[in-house]
Amino acid sequence: MRLAAIFLGLAALLASTAAAGEERAERSVTELVKALKEGDEKARTEAAREIAERKIKAGRATYVLRKMMLTESGGALLATADALEKTGTNMAKTVKELTAQLAGSEPAARARAAWALSLIPSAGSAASSIAPLAEDTDDWVRVSAACALLRFGHEYDRMVQLLVGALGHAEARVRCRAIHGLRYLPGVSELAVSALATIAAKGGEEGVRACLTLAELGPRALSALPTLRSLLESDDMVLVMAAAPAFGSLGPEAAKHVPELLDRMMIIGPDYAKASLALVGMGETAVPALIHAFEEGDIIRQTRAVSVLELLGPLAAPAVPALMREIPIAKSRWKVYDDQRSMQAIVIRTLGKIGKAARPALPALEKLAKMKPGEMFQLAAQHAVWSIRAADR
After folding, report:
1. CA distance 239 to 231
2. The pTM is what?
3. Rounded to an integer, what distance in angstroms lies between the CA atom of residue 153 and that of residue 150?
4. Which pLDDT score is estimated for 168?
5. 165 alpha-carbon distance from chain centroid
6. Do 280 and 314 touch, CB atoms closer than 8 A?
7. pLDDT at 219
8. Measured between alpha carbons, how far is 388 from 323 in angstroms, rounded to an integer?
9. What is the number of other CB atoms lying within 10 angstroms of the CB of residue 25?
């Protein structure tokens, strides 16, 4: 779970994240397999995540990952399951082996096996073997089994009630597993959404987890809108970071709040940072309203809107036509940046961040890039052209 003590600024955070991603060299399959076999939990988790991101289907890697499904726990297990799902690995044999583990004598082993099966979408055939564990005397086993059974649609109402009841359990690990398990709701459950919203409102690590689950539920969690909207005002930036995607996942109803969030960006300060973070976290849901603000607003509002579009990168692709209308014409007499020129500079950078979808802007950007070095917009346009062409390969 992503937790942080302080928030140093949205732009700095995103810039450092992007830089880290650019600097990380892709590892060979051999290196990744070695990390999976010999690395500590952190190294194994990172290797599994890289395999998932790159969708590496090499037999050596998937063989080790399938073995890890039988032994891993925590974040490493989540990353392993995600990698296997994204690479389309056949999990039939692994499901059979995990099902056999359900009969283990140790509660921890039964709970781990049930949880591992819950992370495999194709493991529905194991539901009948998992079902007895929903009556287990051990709470950890019972909630783990309920997570899997809910995902497989087995006794839907009873499993929802079991998990919602576990949200108030004395053990944090049981509460957190129940929060995670509720993201597998196959339909709408006002009982579950209400319970998750209550936890989200309390903040802390469990509040962040609840927000992440609400984000997975998307429009099914619409009744949580008031709570999530209030969390966008929180002084806990980590909570804002978790609440924003959940809020954005609610769709058109959340998009109606984009103008008021832009209003909060008019004055530099804490509200500016929180509103920026919220809008970026909302993702593509915020893009139509941001385009409207860019096209219809005054220069300050335009600048705020395009600054968010820049941070959204490829998600801002629908804004390309509007942005192209603000690309300046190459003129050597421009010497000083004013509000208009500053906004246009951000437009150029944004087109570069959008990448492939900004290809129609290349002719205008190339004219700026061919100006003499040191001319206004020349360097920014050059970088934008490089970025668009690189993404188009």
Report:
1. 7
2. 0.81
3. 5
4. 95
5. 27
6. no
7. 93
8. 14
9. 7
